[in-house]
Amino acid sequence: MTVAYRKNWDTYFMDIACMVSTRSRCPRRHVGAVLVQGKKLLGTAYNGAPMGVPDCSEAGCMVSEQYEREIVGGVETMVKKQRCIRTIHAEQNLLLFTDRSDREGSTVYVTDEPCWTCANMLANSGIVEIVYLRPYRKDMEKVEAMLGSKGIVFRQLENYEPPKETMITVSE
């Protein structure tokens, strides 16, 4: 008798987050998030324009340019960054469409490490753990420090391969 392979819970829920990300119409990055309490899936969300508003694939990206200070090898430089401001992040949508009572003591699985704003919102939402796949280096250190100070478990899912049908090429 052969025993069938069974995915662990982290893989199972991250697979769902990756699948949810395929609903995004953002040409720059597809992000999916799921809310889990115990082993129960309570909500899903992805990044995109507000409901009823043309999204980036219809109206183009609404890009804002900002300059940020970067220190590399002890040398400080100013680097121009672009970000789309038309899109509501997956984590923000997840918080908008789930109840506080469901978030208390829950875990969020998200395809991309939360930015500073999303991490702040999640830290105030009642969740106790964030599991992410791809790092977002821009805010990594301050996000880790803040979530650690709140006692929120924050970890990258190692050695995970997303389902092939969810893979897209993203721009930085």
Automatic annotation (TrEMBL):
<keyword id="KW-0378">Hydrolase</keyword>
<dbReference type="InterPro" id="IPR016192">
    <property type="entry name" value="APOBEC/CMP_deaminase_Zn-bd"/>
</dbReference>
<keyword id="KW-0862">Zinc</keyword>
<dbReference type="InterPro" id="IPR035105">
    <property type="entry name" value="Deoxycytidylate_deaminase_dom"/>
</dbReference>
<comment type="similarity">
    <text>Belongs to the cytidine and deoxycytidylate deaminase family.</text>
</comment>
<feature type="domain" description="CMP/dCMP-type deaminase">
    <location>
        <begin position="8"/>
        <end position="154"/>
    </location>
</feature>
<dbReference type="Pfam" id="PF00383">
    <property type="entry name" value="dCMP_cyt_deam_1"/>
</dbReference>
<dbReference type="InterPro" id="IPR016473">
    <property type="entry name" value="dCMP_deaminase"/>
</dbReference>
<dbReference type="InterPro" id="IPR016193">
    <property type="entry name" value="Cytidine_deaminase-like"/>
</dbReference>
<dbReference type="InterPro" id="IPR015517">
    <property type="entry name" value="dCMP_deaminase-rel"/>
</dbReference>
<keyword id="KW-0479">Metal-binding</keyword>
<dbReference type="InterPro" id="IPR002125">
    <property type="entry name" value="CMP_dCMP_dom"/>
</dbReference>
<protein>
    <recommendedName>
        <fullName>CMP/dCMP-type deaminase domain-containing protein</fullName>
    </recommendedName>
</protein>
